Amino acid sequence: MEGDAFSSIGNGNQIDNKVLQTFQKSFAQVQNILDQNRLLINEINQNHESKIPDNLSRNVGLIRELNNNIRRVVDLYGDLSCSFTKSMETSSEGDSGGTMRSDGKAGQKRIRSGQ
User: Fold this and answer.
1) Where in the cell is it found (predicted)?
2) Where are the domains of the chain?
């Protein structure tokens, strides 16, 4: 199942359902843009091969649209990265000082220097 990929990450922290939905929504947006880009690239290639002046002129706008789509994908991946980092920080801040190991015995949470 696709949701299981994010159900347990890192130190056994559970990712909040809202965060998971945000990831899935962002990945769907990225996939939609990439699908649009594939169509744009096909049209650009056809116009280029036709060597018809109107088609070549149309490519200018299509290439701009393609570049804007690429910027949007980069921004979405940047937002995803920030969201993931924040969710991991929030998740680790919610942990208590003591942790439970997989064998059921209590352990101490490691405190990082400089924090």
Assistant:
1) Nucleus
2) 16-90
Report which secondary-structure segment, H or E, holds 90.
helix 53-93
**DSSP string of 17-66, one letter each residue:** HHHHHHHHHHHHHHHHHHHHHHHHHHHHHHHHHH--HHHHHHHHHHHHHH
Amino acid identity, position 59: N
Inter-residue contact 88 to 13 (CB < 8 Å): yes
For residue 45 the two structure tokens come to: 């290639």
| 99: β partners | 107
3-state helix, strand, coil in the chain (%, to 5): 70, 5, 25
What is the reported pTM? 0.65
Taking the CA atoms of residue 40, residue 42, residue 44 and residue 47 in that order, the dihedral angle to the nearest 10 degrees is -140
